[in-house]
# Entry
Amino acid sequence: MKNNYRTIKAFVVLLSILAFRVAAQPLSGTVTINSGQATGGTNFQTFTVFAATINSVGISGPLVVNVAPNSGPYVEQPAFTNITGASLTNSITINGNGNLLTFSSSNSAQPWTLLMNGAKYFYFNNLNVQGTGTYAYVCVLTNAADFNTFSSCTFSCPANTTSSSHVAFMTSASSTGLSTGANSANYTSVLNCQMFSGYYCMMWYGLTGTPYQQGNRIIGCSIQDYYVYGCYFYYQANGNVSYNTVERPTRTTLSTFYGIMIYYNPGG
# Structure
């Protein structure tokens, strides 16, 4: 029965995606994500359908996505790629309105809840993102996912975890683990967000040689209840880590810890 449900759900998602692809028109203006309404017109029933559509058709102007208040939780794993037409002028703003995006992954090949795989010029506002599974890379930026902003969002792993497969927010050369050697993300702004738990609460990884990762900022955030590292800012050039609160007020499984480790950060 469970397998049948998954098959039916996947079929419904596929039909929704195909319905949008038939028109194959780049998106712009204002659309919604609302689980209480079917995909059609300017509404997407899930983040997954929205991501698949925008990855396919791109945008032709600024796009605002309003997630309907109290329409979550959204139990899924959206993955955004490099969107055709996205730019500083033609940006993509996702207003979460306090909704929860959550996923429990047991798949090491897909360990994330939210994946930014080369995605650029996104603005996420007031969205709660959670990972609860064996693998919980809650938000992953990789493959030159540049010029993205996260404002007043939360990113959370299971409480009191000691697993290195749990990271609330990370940039990495790989989408499936902590890896160096390639550009992960530049000019990322994480502003007034809350990070909760994880072996690393925040991990910034990527190129370990010039030009390194450029211009990433963590400002005014709350970094809480991590196991070993609150914020590991590794080989970041011209970065900014300021006005953050770093603490472990409710963690009961303790270890030697580093609140903020900034290693080889030229110009920061």
